[in-house]
Structures are given as C-alpha cells and as structure tokens.
Amino acid sequence: MMYHSHVLVCAGTGCTSSNSLQIIENFQRLLAEKGYDKEIQVIRTGCFGLCAAGPIVVVYPAGVYYSHVTPDDVEEIVNEHLIKGRPVQRLIYKEMDEKGINTTLNESDFYKKQHRIALRNCGLIDPENIDEYIAFDGYKALEKCLTQLSRDDVVEMVVASGLRGRGGGGFPTGLKWKFAKAPESDVKYVCCNADEGDPGAFMDRSVLEGDPHSVLEAMTIAGYCIGAQQGYIYVRAEYPIAVKRLRIAIDQARDYGLLGDNIMGTGFKFDIDLRLGSGAFVCGEETALLASIEGHRGEPRTRPPFPAVKGLWGKPTLLNNVETYANICQIILNGPEWFASMGTEKSKGTKVFALGGKINNTGLVEIPMGTTLREVIYDIGGGIPNGKKFKAAQTGGPSGGCIPAEHLDIPIDYDNLIAIGSMMGSGGMIVMDEDDCMVAMAKFYLDFTVEESCGKCAPCRIGNKRLHEILQKITSGNGTEEDLTRLRNLAMVIKDTALCGLGQTSPNPVLSTMDNFYDEYLAHVREHRCPSHQCRELTQYFINPEKCKGCTLCARVCPVHAITGGRKIPHIIDPQACIRCGTCMEKCKFGAIYVH
Q1: Is 577 helix (H, G, I), strand (E, B) or coil?
Q2: Other C-beta atoms within 10 Å of 260: how many?
Q3: In the chain, fewer beta carbons within 10 Å around the N or the C end?
Q4: Is the entire prediction scored with pTM above 0.90?
Q5: 498, 299 Cβ separation under 8 angstroms
Q6: Is-contact 376 365, C-beta < 8 A?
Q7: Of 556, 523, 515, 516, which Cα lies nearest the Cα of 539?
Q8: What is the spatial distance between Cα 372 and Cα 238, in angstroms, rounded to a whole number?
Q9: Which DSSP string do the residues of 6-55 spell out, in sequence order?
Q10: 142-196 pLDDT, tens per residue?
Q11: Are 421 and 438 in contact (CB under 8 A)?
C-alpha cells in the first residue's frame, strides 16, 4: 500500500513513559474516523536521540519535527497539518521553527555533528516490523557473508576496520573474533552483553528498542565466523520494551528463515535465545555474565583462560556488547576502509553516548571518535542550563572518572580519556555544573559500587566499604587530612588487587576527583565547608534581616519548626534544629535566605 504521508512517533522508553503509545493510538483512531488511514501511515519507532524534546513526532515527507507532543495535541496535528497542510507552529521543535520547517534534522545543531551508524535505524523504522529493517538493507550483510565471503574473510574485515569493543574495555573486536575462531570445538557460543548497568547509561537499551534486528544479524554473522550454532542475548529484565522487541524480532527472523536451520538455503545453522538478568551490576563483567547464563551466581572468575578459549559451559565463547554488534553489518556492507576512515588513529568509527545531567539537550548522541568534549557539551548538548558554568563530565560511570573544564578540548577516544584519569566505558556521560560537589559525587558512585559488589574478593567487598566510610566522614564534616592520605592509598590498593575489571576500576571516581578537585577535599577537611553547599552536614542556612519581610512563609513550610519570628519581623533559623532541607530557601520570595 502506498502512503503519501508518514507520521513517525517515538516509542522508546523515555517517550513511552510520557504517553507516546497513547499518541500513536490517537493518531490511528482519528485518521481512521476521518477516512485518511489509507493515505497516512502511523509508524512506531525507536528513540530519535533528542530525549529532552520528547515525546517526538515527525511528519514526512516534509520532515516537520514536533516536540513535547501530548495525546491532546494529536487532533490539532491531524486537522491542521495532515488534512489542511498547515503545520502546527506551537509544537514545532524550537530550532526547526527558527530555521524554517524545511530544515532537515541533519542540519539542526543537535544532529549535524553526529554520524549515526549504530543508531542508523533508530527513529526511522518500526522495530517490530522485519520488513522495514529489510527495506533498509537489513540482512544483506549476512547474505554477503554466507554466499560471497569465507569465515577468514569476514574476520579479517572486522580486524581491518579497527573496531574496538564498545562495552568499556575497548579490546580490538576483530582480534577477539580471531581468538574465538581458532580453537577446535564441537560446540561454540556467541553471546551479547545487553546488561547495561551504569547509572545514566541507556545506549544499548535504545539500540535494542529501535533496531533489534541489527544485533541479531551481526550475531549470526559472528556465529558463521567462529563456527557457532547457538547465541544468547543477556538482557536485563528492567528493559521490558527491549525484551519484548527482541522476542518479536527473533520470532520474525525464524519465520523468514534468517535464524534456525539452513539459513538462506546455505546449510548454515544458527539460533538465538534470550536470558534475562536480574539487575546485578557485576553481571556486566564477562565471566560473571556467562556464569549467570549457566544458572550460577553471577560472580567473576580469574582469567586466563579467557572466554574465547573456555567460556559458556566450558566451550569457546565470543562475547560482545550491543553497540559493538550494531556496527558489524555496516562494516561488511561498506567495507572496513570506510569505517576506519572515521575516528582517530587508535580509535576508529563512532561512539554512542548517553548525555545526561546538567545539560540542555539530554539524549543519545553518536559522534566520530576524536570529537572534542566541548563540541559534545556545547554544540550538540546545547550547553549548561540557566547560564551555569561547566564543571566536569563523568564518563564511564562508576568505573570512570571526571573530566574537568581544562580538558574540554581533548579529542574523545579510548587512549585520551585514560590518559586524563577517566575512561570511555559503555558510553554514559553525566555533565556537572558549578553547583555540584565533587566529593559528594565520588561518594555517590561509591554508594553504587558498595551496593553492587558481588563480594567474592576482599579488596572490592571490604575495601570499597572502607572508601565509602572515609568519604562519609569527610562529607559530614569530621574528616582530617590524614583521611585524604588513607583515601588515596586505599584506592590504589583496590585498583591493584581486586579480582575483576569492575573492582579494579571502582576507585576511579575517587582518584580522578582527588586529582582534579583536591581543593574541594581540603575545604571539607580543613574548613569543614562544602564550597558547593551540597553536603548537608556542612551547610548552614541564614536569613538576611535586611531582606526578610517577615511574611512567615519560611516558618510555615519548615518541617521541623526551626524558624522563628513574628509577622513583619525578620526571622531567625535555629542551626541546632535545622535539618538543612533547603525548603525555606526554595520558597522564599524575597531572596532573604542564603547558605554558607
């Protein structure tokens, strides 16, 4: 059926939580009622990337980009735009409206510096319709591998592309495939790590929600290369939309003969099943993940042997993460030279980041390796809200470190980030402004690490607990300079002695903040003061008597009745009773309350 217009509606997790499914239903119902359902097609898509503007609706062929759409807005879009041809100006994404509605998405500030490879189909196709994936060259790479290329040819293409693992470690993908192909074994496995656990990271989730077949196709190619017949996707159960779409995609691929026996009539056999994780952060580590698939407690083991030699059920196993697989088919179709032409000398291609925190344009961005942090924060991310100053960006989640403003112009790649005390990680990027306390930030990540430690090794189980206790002592105003020495020494010991990569990198937030913001640590222990006023025990609220009008609002909202004073008389805060919740300052209409 030929349609003259298409309405694409984001149905990723973010927009779904803001009623995008109801928006889709309203479009379909109204178009059917008005007799336009045979002319205008409504398509559910994955994430467009610009989550700050969601829910997002894009109308083609004009490419009109609507933001912050509600179910109640649908009738106006149908009547004015789809029927009368008059776009609804109040809903058009601000930048598109300023530049003219004929501006394409790729010309907008958020998108023009991006290069979408892993995210190429997200926001463009219906992830629950295999025909749409096939229409965008889906499964052509698999066909090329099975009919034109030998197993060695494919492995060499991945090696030549320079693709490195996007799960955090950055190990050369082609080399890993070569290692998994080498052992002789009657059984081998291909696994996908979709257990995305870093706080603030949602890159893999969005790929699975928006383009699940890209991962299935790449895993099947990997199975062909290493001689495996079975694959497993280990995906966290907290991703219900991703799990649902993966199940639909697997069933569709089986129905089309793209999974199972005799794929494409070539005699090659390969199938994929799901295994659901229950939210243990440590299961993002490869050996813990494989143990969990086997039904055991998710704990890492010593290496060697590596999974490529002895992995799942003791058999050679290839394990890559979602984003790594999402690049494979484009490398096969376009050639390794095409992929290697992007990025830096040692970090080829693009990288997806989940941009969050104190940033105007929160969402998913995919940039060529070598793009500077300044370009990501200010050109793509739209800068810091409310005119605040950029302070730092945390990359790599609990395993990474903070990047201060002095490194804003550093090209982002694996080696550069490690050189300044951070790491690429899976791709979370949390932006902090001048109001954030870096000591409290380090404590936040240690909170997470202590909670998520599997407990198998003492350095992680006990050492991180001691790190957290020292940070708690410092942020509560009881720290000493000796504590700072103990903090650094203990962090280095954990880094050198923990069993797995997660434990070894867990002190990074502490070490990087001490390296880059040591003055804040000193203020906490020498002056018993938090410069950012974020540590509650080190913050005291005062009322300026010259500004206070005696309206009594602050006294009325104080939950512990710590504020006294009569009407039209300056009020006073009792520092002993005050719990430092900040409600009084938030409610004061005269700016009379301040912190010190």
Answers
A1: coil
A2: 14
A3: N
A4: yes
A5: no
A6: yes
A7: 523
A8: 33
A9: EEEEE-SHHHHTTTHHHHHHHHHHHHHHTT-TTTEEEEEE---S-GGG-S
A10: 999 999 999 999 999 999 999 999 987 889 999 999 999 999 999 999 999 999 8
A11: no
Question: Per the structure block, which two tokens stand in for 29?
Answer: 């119902």
Q: Report yes or no: 487 and 514 within 8 Å, Cβ to Cβ.
A: yes
Give me the sheet containing 363-368, strands edge to edge.
363-368, 350-357, 428-433, 390-395, 401-404
For 173, which DSSP code? Answer: H
Q: Which two tokens stand for residue 415?
A: 């080696």
Q: What separation, in Å, do the N-terminal and C-terminal C-alpha atoms of the chain show?
A: 67
280 and 454 Cβ atoms separated by less than 8 Å:
yes
Angle subtended at Cα 436 by Cα 434 and Cα 442, rounded to the nearest 5 degrees:
135
296 burial class (0-12, 13-18, 19+ CB within 10 angstroms)?
exposed
Helical (H) or strand (E) element with 572: strand 572-573
DSSP string, 470-536: HHHHHHTT---HHHHHHHHHHHHHHHHH-SSHHHHHTTHHHHHHHHH-HHHHHHHHHS---TTS--G
Q: How far is CA 595 from CA 338, 529, 554, 585, in A?
A: 55, 11, 14, 9
Between CA 340 and CA 254 the distance in angstroms is 33
Which residue in the block uniquely carries the two structure tokens 């002319």? 39
Packing angle of the helix pair 322-334, 140-148 (nearest 10 deg): 60
pLDDT at 435 over 70: yes
**What confidence tens digit (pLDDT) does each residue in 352-377 have?**
999 999 999 999 999 999 999 999 99
Strand, coil or helix: 84:
coil
Q: Distance between CA atoms of 494 and 503, rounded to whole angstroms? A: 7
Place of tokens 């199938």: 271
Bridge-based pairing of strands 363-368 and 260-263 is unpaired
The answer to whether the beta carbons of residues 301 and 406 sit under 8 Å apart is no
* Residue 1 scores a pLDDT above 80: no
Residue 409: pLDDT above 70? yes
309: which DSSP letter? T
Please report, as a single letter, which amino acid is at residue 490: L
User: pLDDT digits over 187-201, tens only?
Assistant: 999 999 999 888 888
Check residue 397 and give its pLDDT. Answer: 85
What are the residues whose beta carbons fall under 8 Å from the beta carbon of 378, sequence distance 6 or more?
Answer: none
Locate 559 and state its tokens: 């939950």
